[in-house]
Queue: 3 jobs
Job 1
Amino acid sequence: MLGLMQPHALMISSILTHAARHHGSAEVVSRTHENTTHRYTWRDVEARSRRLVRVLQKLGVGAGDRVGTLAWNGYRHLEVYYAAPGMQAICHTINPRLHPDDIAYIINHADEKVLFVDVSFAPLVTAIAPKISVKTIVMMTDPEHMPDVSLAPGMTLASYDQLMDAADDDYAWPMFDESTASALCYTSGTTGRPKGVLYSHRSTWLHAYAVSLPDVLCCRATSRVLPVVPMFHVNAWGIPYATALTGGALVLPGRHLDGASMAAILNEERVTLTCGVPTVWLGLLQHLRATGERLHTVERIMTGGSAAPPLLIDAFRDEYGVRVEHGWGMTELSPVGTYNAPKVAQVGLPNPDATRHMLKQGRILPGIDMKIVDGDGKELPWDGVAFGDLKVRGPWIAGAYYGDEPGSALDKDGWFATGDVATIDPDGFMEITDRSKDVIKSGGEWISSITLENIAVSHPDVAEAAVIAAIHPKWDERPLLLVVPRPGRTVDKASVLAIYEGKVAKWWLPDDVVVLPELPHTATGKLLKTSLRSQFRDHYQKA
């Protein structure tokens, strides 16, 4: 017997119409490329998104077509977020930090119908134009600020504002199957060509609900949320949908994410919650300490993408009264899978214990599940000691990559292998100990590179650290520590190794320290360990 509830499909457009109807005066604020501040409301976003649908229709976009974006966090980009899926097309955000060859590959693989581009990426479009098949390029600006762009024969160039001025908003959002594709994001391609993850209206709705919960982002109508994480990176962790769903104010920072710019916009716009990767928060911390500036309204920082060093958690809590909270996820998870919000047992922990606990990536969001398994696929206990391969499943987790057979990314029981190695403690808090490809296996035992990196960056002379597995003639692999000095500092190897005393087993200690001027990073800001392994894997062989 079926239930007798109304069969309304979960449409992304209904998130926006809810915001417009019930939170119509709530602000959406953007820093623009012209260094101005643009302000309007959720009611305006909804009306202009309907207008943009008319633009897309005139450009030949129909159901199922891919609408690409190369853009920072701004109001025009937000309108594409809602207009494309609302008309049953697909919003495809493209990471401009990838290699141009990968960007061209992604555009062609997705078979874009039209490409929306921020003016700062005009040189990039000129460079890749001969390699891509898309025919229409829309620069996200007004006619007066149109940049010089050299396109390939057969391509056309248009101004976003000019197209919008010529369109009307006489459009009614349609209803269709909630499993219809809504957005497309590609992985960063560190282990081969980028792979596409295709979200649905239903998965996006459920993810937005989950990240808005009190023990996750706790989005409210009174919240003022600034996603530092780019809208081209896994839909800005779902924040453009969560803020509309709950009616909070959305603050979009544009392209300038340095410490001074971040401090200014966080204070000027009275931001209460902000979300991004640790490198951004380290830059903000450095600026605050150097200038004596304070954060007047920020209550919480969500950090993810890579492990946050303990000093980041301690400094923001003890010096500025701001909580730094870990989240974890990946493109294939829409992206948020866990969040580190306390249970009763963690409330009131003394600061050292609280910091140690906050280094964990957190507990699973309601609606999805996780487990850790050994090399034979046997589930391991949640004792905080055993660590194994992390697997997840649920309604906003990918079952296959774009272009592949449905279910092809899952095991026989429907679990998705994340590629992370993790532990789970008795309270259900998961901690990433490594990527499966980065874990160090020394003499048959595993060593966590992430743990060693977090300890290294607590040294006052170390700005950044990476630990890789280097081939060893006796132990198969041994950890090698690669560090970047802080500006004006010199790294003493013995001093760095000394800080590990009492923190890890002696056999975990790196056998050597290499000082470098900089470390390579992926397009999403993560350490590019494939490059480091290629360069230093034989370090102990040469010694």
Job 2
Amino acid sequence: MSGSPNGSLGRRTFVLGTAAAAGSAALAGPLAGTASAAGFGWSDDGSNYVVDTGASLVFKVSKTNGDLTSLVYKGTEYQGYGGKNSHVESGLGTSTVGIAQSGTTILISVTYGTLKHYYAARSGENNVYVWTNKADSSVTATRYIVRVKAGLFLNDEPDSYTYAPTVIESADVFAKSDGQTRAKHYSKLRVMDYSYIGWTTGSVGLWIVRSNHEKASGGPFYRSLLRHQSTDGGGLYEILYYGENQTESERFGLQGPYVIAFTDGGAPSSSLYPGTLTTSWADSLGISGYVSASGRGRVAGVGITGRNTAYAYTVGLAGSAAQYWGSARSSDGYFSIAGVLPGSYTLTVFKGELAVYTTSVTVTAGGTTTLNTIAIPSSNDPSNASAIWRIGDWTGSPSGFKNADLMTYAHPSDVRAAAWTGNVVIGSGTETSAFPCYLWKDVNSGIIVYFKLTAAQAAAAHTLRIGVTTAYANGRPQVVVNDTWTSAVPSPPTQPSTRSLTVGSYRGNNYTFTYSVPASAWLTDTSAYNTLRIYVASGSGTTSYLSAGTSVDAIDLLA
């Protein structure tokens, strides 16, 4: 995990946390000892099981449906808005709910059909540990949401629409009077970039520390909604499966623990973070689908050669039942991914977000699968191909292109976005920063790239490549060279069918379109600019930013 907190810890601000913010606050970690704190225990008020952690937190769980009905921290109720509780999805309905105490741990179990859900409290901690086991598709469960009362944490950030009264898309994207856009989708972060999410007043912090997402889908670069804030209250999410711009099938099984954590205003303890948290105390609790540390394995790589050291490399494991990832060490590419469920996985090495190497690995319980040095073939990285010119670089993301960073936390219509139109001249020094990260049929289709060729270059055929990272409504590039040669309309690659470009996500399936441009298409006058017009082809989509579109990774003309 890497990154830095987004926001300060000042009065009435919020924080999107990352592992880099770990060490400063030893505030809410698991207790090393076994002694029970004064007041620790549970009771039954007739409608709810009431758990006193023996610290500063008392919470209630409905005996009827397993909703979290109360979160009282230091005497203040934080849970609930609009008459709604905190729960799986929008509530499970009538369930079987039980409670048991085992030493310094209290476990509440909720059964609804094939779905099993758990809350655990540890003596002396201001935490609620949560697991959800969705066994199959018979029960809808795509999230856990902690609903928080209005007015306790105020903000005006990208995923807030408290101050954004105008709806501009699908009843979930809003515009403020100053033209800035807001939506719960605009989290800014990939899943690998954060360990916790929440708010702080400076004296009280309320967080969800995410699970390791081994049963989630989409991989390390996936983006989903994490939090929202509106006039009626706020929500913190642990996404069990998010279908928007999703590239993988849903995985089933036990997800967790994810942790609802209160602090005195600082970050949650790094001991709660995914990859750090240990739960040996839960080994004997009987949680359905739970696999202890001894039942898991590890994958380790000696190193990776053939890397471009200007970029970070990530190693991902993906199987039908689980997913994992870890960072490759910048000095030599060493990596280690622990806590892996036994099974077969596809191991992928990513340069940035671009897959440049794959192999298969098998993980066994209690074992370490050690890989010798991985050598990335030069041909696997498209950046290694000799090019006459190149816009951007092949990283699997639109990083560096115009508006690319803004689009992870704003709508394309946002007043802060630079114009989506405008042509590009090779050799200007601004080729990448001037080229828009997204192209739409109804917005900027037909953008022109100007470039010159030497006599030798103009005398030969060349391959043009356009890399994309996702598409909306089957948008794909068709090109015209010098208004004389027109490419065929390429077939659309497999991409997610939902919204993407307007909800903060460029992460779909990376794909490279290639065009064989004949020598007859080039201008023979070496002082004249050739023109490459890039259009978006598709009969799908509607209008404006919901017309067919695509996100750009890199464009180059090969030598």
Job 3
Amino acid sequence: MRRRDFIVRGAVAGGALSMLDLRALLAQPARRDDFEFDAQERELAFRALDAARAAGATYADVRVNRNRSQSVSTREQQITGISDNETMGMGVRVIAAGSWGFAATNALTSDEVARAARQAVAQARANALTQLRPVELAPAEVTPNGQWSSPIAVDPFEIAIEDKVSVLFGANRAAQGVRGARFVSSFFSFLREDKFFANTEGTVTNQTIYRTTPSVSVTAVASDGSDFQSRESTDLSPRGLGWEYVLDSDLGGNAERWAEEAVEKLSARPVTAGRYDLVLLPTNLWLTLHESIAHPTELDRIFGFEANYAGTSFIYPPADFLGRFRYGPEIMNIQGERSSRGGLSTVGYDDEGVRPRDYLIVRDGVLNDLQTTREQAPWLSDWYGQSGQAVRSHGCSYAQSWSDVQFQRMPNVNLLPHPDRDVPLDELVDGVENGILIDGNSSFSIDQQRYNAQFSGQVFREIRNGRVGGMLKDVAYQLRTPEFWNSMDLIGGRSTYWVGGANNDGKGQPSQINAVSHGCVPSRFRQVNVINTGRGA
């Protein structure tokens, strides 16, 4: 039953590595059937639940996770790193004496999982000594045999490393073919997570989750060495898909375009600070949405239980905001979901065994709902009762691995297209006399309540009298969250919808990493303050 708990298959820094060396480095790759949970591992999960109940737990759940992650990185025509890691273990979470307890182990034996369950109960009893109020869980549908898998066509772990390197080298060559492009780096990262969940209420689920991330970075250098500019491939977002996503991404063609834009940046005109109308492409807007809408609508931030990674939330107390606070115009609808194909937060069941449903966080511009887990949903019972909604978790529980306790993490949070018609990008630009079109995301900062912020991008183009013109540089826009979103006067339609996202959304202490997607459309914002970030500004 015991398999490899942790594998490191190699890391190479500096210098090229031959394909013969690669084959030796990655000999005997794990087969796909290595990742299927067997009956003995399932039995151990139920053994842990029984031990928790016997020790006095009134509720318990168990997650058995096996995660495999792989990355390949290159620079020009050299391999700079390869890693292939696997980890497996069990986490046991309980409620005893009205409080939470958690323990984890990677020693999957009958005695050890029972010991971990008893340890979790003992921890819960200790936590109860400082308890303010007992934990109450919202009701959840019992799923006795839930099955789900990411909708991949090709398992990325079945693709040979040399084939992955070949694609990266091809993208690098395409970028290097552009005059002025001096340095190119690229990488792939892949994740497969097999997750078995069971709780004392009778829910049992089994899921397989994939994530695929391609990335390219190009740096152009002026001929006299006086300047350099970079273009990151932030318009090529990670996805909850397989190797087919890489094949569909036209990495070579896009790398050439990114290199051309990096070179064009060298001669771009520095922006003049002032107020501009902004047309933000989804490649830029998804990050602004993430920071100024998705994070401040996390309920644990709102109540102050979470303050890591840029603080709490300006939405407090929630009763004063829900159904009243105008986040933006009537055309603004913000959706929370974990169902979209290829979404990084897309799952069949969350880490409490809840099947998530799509819902509106903002409806017609007004704050309508928040992100919840089974523990958090009862905190909003008065609001749900007034609005005629059932007290139910939105399925926002997640832990990054078996060794971490699950807690509230955001779903995919999306700005939905225009509700009435398919508005093209050209129409957004047509209405701008003096503005800037921003493509791609870059550096940002935001305050401790997600209220004041500053965002930059990758490519900036001047808009004059409804026409897109030359490139600008050193652009960043500043915002106060409600003023910014209420300055949005037109958004794109269904045909302009695009999905961005990131694998590295941090939260918690000790910190955990979540992957999340944000779909959105091009959007126009009126009279936004723009600053010049250049050193000579």
